[in-house]
Design goal:
This protein has helices at residues 14-24, 57-61, 115-127, 155-164, 177-189, 208-216, 232-244, 274-280, 289-293, 305-315, 345-371, and strands spanning 2-5, 29-37, 42-50, 66-70, 90-93, 96-99, 104-108, 132-134, 169-173, 195-200, 222-225, 250-254, 285-287, 320-326, 340-341. By secondary structure, it is α/β, with parallel strands linked by helices. Bound molecules: phosphoenolpyruvate (PEP) and manganese (II) ion. The site of manganese (II) ion (MN) has 4 residues, from loops.
Length: 373
């Protein structure tokens, strides 16, 4: 059960203390409070864990400072969408809103290779009005002999250039807890001129110790990718690990499933699950058409498969797009064959705009029909 307290309730206030004293005395119940400091207001939620069936909704509702009570199901306690649950389905980070009704494009390099390529990429993004990007410094690779990413060595110039080109958020995968500290330190050294959303890759979706560590910090939001060989439920529980440790700024990423049924694409595109994740949880949903499709093939209509897959996710309500671009794909050290070209960026963005507009029109259409009964 969650007690959502009246906005702005301070933990030092006598009513709050009185409430907590009462709750901690309830038999068989563990109490856990979580405070979220937002731009507009501070919200506190109190989680009651244990034998909550015995508690009456009305009794809880009448306690001091309580605004509303939500009875939660066992699943996805923090991130889930429960009955009568009006908790917000968004968060703000470094001036960018991530929500179930926003859309942010994170076009960029799969892996940072040279300073020149990073600069060309960021300049193109700035020139096309973009404020987010993807840049991999730590790359989990199938072969131990493949390029593993430049690691912390590239962070200073990546962050400096992001500041120069007014990039506000970089999606960057971490594969070890030490990477979080390296990113924090490099951001500090470069004057915090940009922000980072930590990416948990599909190979680490169930690396529970990494999830707990990333979940315990709240400086950086997290993009967790769906595990490519596990069920959706298992992946959503992985996201819940982050939230149960305290970090609710979580975006859930679909990136295709590993099965030969998806051939000739690299993975089986699973963007039909965008609305499913939005129904089951309050997380914004990201799609990664590059790692799903994995190749630059196109169809007879002239549209690349990566762009078709992107449009499919966006028209289904996706909230974030993670997509590989590269100034010279033949020179990319990772995933060149799936990268879009810089000259394709305006085309890609316009295509996304069309798909998003279609999605918004579909939502309006349904609302009109519902109103008409
Ligand atoms: C990536 O986004 O660079 C990546 C490796 O993705 P995934 O974890 O989905 O394979
Ligand atoms: Mn890649």
């Amino acid at each position: 059960m969650i007690l959502i307290l009246k906005p702005g309730m301070l933990s030092e206030s006598p009513e709050y203390k009185q409430l907590l004293a009462y709750l901690t005395n309830l038999a068989g119940i563990t109490v856990r409070a979580h405070t979220e400091v937002g731009i507009e207001q501070t919200l506190t939620e109190v989680y009651l864990i244990g034998n909550t069936k015995a508690l009456l909704l009305e009794d809880m509702q009448s306690l001091p400072c309580v605004e509303r009570v939500v009875r939660i199901s066992e699943e996805y306690r923090v991130l889930g969408r429960h009955e009568n649950d009006v908790r917000p389905a968004y968060f703000d980070y470094n001036g960018v809103r991530f929500g179930q009704d926003t859309l942010n494009v994170f076009a960029g390099l799969c892996a940072v290779d040279t300073l020149e390529h990073v600069e060309l990429m960021m300049k193109a993004l700035r020139d096309h009005g973009q404020v987010c990007t993807r840049m991999g410094a730590y790359k989990p690779r199938t072969s131990p002999y493949s390029f593993q990413g430049h690691g912390k060595a590239c962070l200073p110039y990546v962050f400096d250039l992001a500041g120069k080109y007014e990039i506000k958020v970089i999606a960057m995968e971490v594969t070890h807890e030490s990477h979080v500290e390296e990113i924090r330190e490099a951001l500090y050294q470069t004057g915090n001129s940009t922000g980072v959303i930590l990416q948990i890759g599909t190979r680490n979706t169930q690396n529970f110790e990494l999830l707990k560590i990333v979940g315990r910090q709240q400086d950086f939001p997290v993009l967790i990718k769906r595990g490519f060989g596990i069920t959706l439920d298992e992946s959503l529980n992985a996201a819940e690990y982050l939230a149960s440790e305290g970090n609710r700024k979580v975006v859930f990423g679909l990136r295709g499933m590993k099965t030969n049924m998806g051939d000739p694409h690299r993975n089986f595109v699973d963007f039909a699950h965008v609305p499913v994740v939005k129904r089951l949880t309050r997380m914004p949903v990201c799609i990664d058409p590059s790692h799903s499709v994995g190749i630059r093939t196109g169809s007879p209509d002239g549209i690349l498969d990566v762009m078709h897959a992107t449009a499919q996710g966006v028209i289904a309500g996706a909230n974030m797009i993670l997509v590989d671009f590269h100034p010279v794909p033949s020179k990319a050290l990772v995933d060149g064959p799936q990268a879009l070209l810089l000259k394709e960026l305006p085309l890609f963005l316009e295509d996304v705009r069309i798909a998003r507009e279609a999605y918004e029109k579909r939502v309006e259409l349904v609302k009109r029909y519902q109103k008409a009964g």
